[in-house]
Fold these 2 entries.
Entry 1:
Amino acid sequence: KQEVTQIPAALSVPEGENLVLNCSFTDSAIYNLQWFRQDPGKGLTSLLLIQSSQREQTSGRLNASLDKSSGRSTLYIAASQPGDSATYLCAVATGNQFYFGTGTSLTVIP
Amino acid sequence: EAQVTQNPRYLITVTGKKLTVTCSQNMNHEYMSWYRQDPGLGLRQIYYSMNVEVTDKGDVPEGYKVSRKEKRNFPLILESPSPNQTSLYFCASSLADRSYFGPGTRLTVL
């Protein structure tokens, strides 16, 4: 069974700093990996999707990479802002199912 | 506007009283799914549906039922709710594997 781990569970950084969030998974037979953002009391918003054949995807200040063979993905956030404060989750698609990590709670301090 | 809607958003009920949480999407997506989110456990998939009349179990299906009679709707049914089903529930629909989530239903079973 696929297991997804995110480290660290919580992260606090000053505004303007670049940061990296980590995601690891145990079964490399994935179709894709998504990074989501979840604000308190809200649903999830998809940020980036990387297909299994891709190495990275970029959207604005966000860059996600995927190393399928080692079971790892990173989400790089450049020039962090207080509005980036949220919980970030990664999810892998394996077979017809999705498996989520427990998330990294990010706080960007003004 | 593309969206996934869930109702109700909040529900307090008692053990054994049957309930249904509705989910509807307006994007004509074939894939829909239900998740529960619990502290420390992350999101876990309950059921998913590849298309109308096609449903399958996720990781935690016990105590839940679903149906998919129309493409846009995917209700979650708890025939006899128990306190361990107290959780935050999310419905999602997917196209090309990118997932769109509803706002969540917070269920408390007393």
Entry 2:
Amino acid sequence: AIQMTQSPSSLSASVGDRVTISCRASQDIGNDLGWYQQKPGKAPKLLIYAASTLQGGVPSRFSGSGSGTDFTLTISSVLPEDFATYYCLQDNNSPYTFGQGTKLEIK
Amino acid sequence: VQLVESGGGVVQPGRSLGLSCAASGFTFRGYAFHWVRQAPGKGLEWVSLISYDGTKKYYADSVKGRFTISRDNSKNTLDLQMNSLTAEDTAVYYCALTGTYSGMDVWGQGTTVIVSS
């Protein structure tokens, strides 16, 4: 199975900061990667699919980049509603796999 | 556009439980669906995927041979039959229409499964 290594596991930031979260795949997955945001008690929400395509309705401060094995989610200027946990998901090859998650906390 | 799960509950180790997911507001038969779970205080775990026509089914290693995914395109429903349950299967289970190739992102509200004696 493809392993997804996500870093960091937690991140403290202030409103207005630029933050970056990384995911590394154990083998080439092309651009078959999505980024999800999850808030406590809620279902995940897709932010980015195909590594860099913004899901409809998602603010443009979110962006994704990368291909192959290394991927990045960037929030250009963090807003209060962005404090949540973020996950990557590879859907290139079954079994699909999530990263371990990154909890974005208020500094 | 909505997915609504049902069937969660408390079940003893070694027993079985079936989950269902009812879809509405879109063309159900045109899409592949996932089950994703989240154990208490843990991260997301992908569980299973079924193709749009039900001919292809994929499973996480942790559930292969114990869980069976199925769908009924005439009823717009998705099911997950879970056998030989263990405490490690305790989680909130979500059905989802999501991913790189779906063009959509729709999740159910989640249904809780607790495996305990």
